[in-house]
Protein 1
Amino acid sequence: MESMIRDIKLAPSGHDKIAWVKNFMPVLRSIDEEYSKTKPFAGKKVVITMHLEAKTAYLALVFKNAGAEVIATGSNPLSTQDDVVAALVEDGVTVYSWYNCTNEEYDMFIDKALDCNPDMIIDDGGDLVARIHNERPELIIGGSEETTTGVIRLKALAEQGKLKFPMIAANDAYCKYLFDNRYGTGQSTWDGIMRTTNLVIAGKTVVIAGYGWCGKGGAMRAKGLGANVVITEVDPIKAIEAVFDGFRVMPMEEAAKIGDIFLTLTGCDNVINEKHFALMKDGAMMANSGHFDVEINKVDLLKNSVSHRPVRKNIEEYVQKDGRKLYLLAEGRLVNLAAGDGHPAEIMDLSFGVQFFSALHILNHHQEMENKVYLMPEEINTKIAQIKLKALGVELDELTEEQKAYLAKA
């Protein structure tokens, strides 16, 4: 199979990026060292649809070294790094992706990847699973899903009895969401916003839509940067948690009047729309860290604007009928990847350990698994944490036999 990428000559800087992140990903290095010898995925085709940058490239190479034939495609038109995919191709991975592809090209790349008839998939957002179920009848062993949005889509399929193969919700593993969704999203989102705007966060009112684990991370980092943080929520329990964490909670219609920066992390659509745009201050900025570019209603925003133009890389200005200027970052796509480098390597090390072991579990146990969404076995979570702690030089206490006996009492 022949890859479709922008320019193979970009590979040298891609190799440098991959080599850099490997230094800070001890879990994947440990996995690579062990399973490159035993090659459990020998003879298997694995399709990876993810944000194709250095850290995901390293995951793809770990699967390849473990024996798999790896085919990779991007999960977002703006997150593929052309030098990184060129390096992957030089290292023997088939890639169909380039930066800023059209929607038609994006769909074509997924189809190209599925033409290989994969045995397993690693998905990010659910587009790959959706394509298989809606248009591609091929049966696969199973796979894993990286994101909250993708897991929501998988569970909907399972509840309708339409899921055709077992999937592990990698996103719901402790070693994923406690770190990736919170610390990873929190840091990388504000990296993307600050890099793009070159503006101070301190003193601004930041409105965070959604107080799930990603929202918690975004709010925590905004607070640390000196922002006045407001949370909007639909879940009463999450709203109480936000209040107890020291944040103001109010409806978006109230928050729209006071916000300087709006950040959506809900996994839902139409979170900020026409009625909110009408209330926003002149100069308000909007960004999204949910998987799809549907949380900020771009159709409404354009419809109510008298002019629209790019004013800086990854910033579009929408002038409203009354003269107010509203700014949208990264086309409303994932601001941490479309306008930044994504999560820190140390964080993705944990997440990709979850992805690898999820795939390995499917490989070894798919025959006894039903067509439903599974959580990763707890012992794998523990194994990943142990590898990471060892790499960090952190030691733990151990229960004595007497303590174990005490805890085991009825």
Note: The chain has a mean pLDDT of 95.
Protein 2
Amino acid sequence: MRKILLASTALVALGVSAASADISISGNGKWSYTNNSKSTDNASVSGDSMSTAMAITVASSFASDSGLTYGTSHSLSNGNNDGKKIYVSGSFGEVRIGGDSAGAAFDVDPSVADGESATHGATAFHGAPTTAKVTDDGISYFTPSINGFSAGVSFGDAGAGHGENGDVTEMGASYSQTVGDATIKVSYAARDTSASNPGGTDGSEATSMGATITMGDLSVTVAANTQTKDDTSSNGDESGTGIGLSYVLSEGLTLKAHTVSSDDDADSTVDNSETAASLTYVVAPGLTANVAYTDSESGTTTGTATTAYLKVAF
């Protein structure tokens, strides 16, 4: 990460001391190769592809004499918006506009393998709210960490137009405790999405709960996710479970693996499962190589995928 100190004259105009404010620029370039094979493929499908992605984030950070920390960040991926955030934090906690919502912050995703290429099994959260309004324009409050406990709540407005009543409310909490050589973190998150029109049936509720146990180089995550839809005429309630592990084999080399699955109580053809494993190697500071293998099933379709990437980050 390259940090550029703001000019003293500009800081004076803002009323902030030069020693407590800076702008940071970070990013990465990533080349990926994927080879997919599905039971429904026909003879003309090649199954393999290559891609290159470029990402950059510009962030500002300020600290006032009164103890406030505040700033912004904006990320672009291949020239497209990939996240924006404004935040103010202090002893009261943090107020955040955009960025990770409470659901994303406290959701437990057991799909830890890096670089896997398939459909996730468990479906409720996985760090992605149902509308970008929460991620880009929603407002959140997060408590400070108190003896290992922290919590947050978010609200996203779907819009002011016709059919834009699908507002989103999210909340979450976690508790972390060290027991002997192990650190245990338990988390819970919930999301409520209103119907897009008054009296509509396209609303939903979702929950995520799980725990991560870390002991030395080994980390294990277990989770259970649910999603309940107001309209069950096409798809019913969904539930997902999974377990993932991460183990540092040696300096710079990490093995990750997971197995996840989900069930729809009204339509078994959309049931999903996925098992994946990855090896990630830090070749040099800022240079990372990865290879992963995935075996997945979605309804009656099965498939495998082998992926690899090379990433340069700064």
Note: Residues 1-19, 120-132 have pLDDT under 50 and may be disordered.
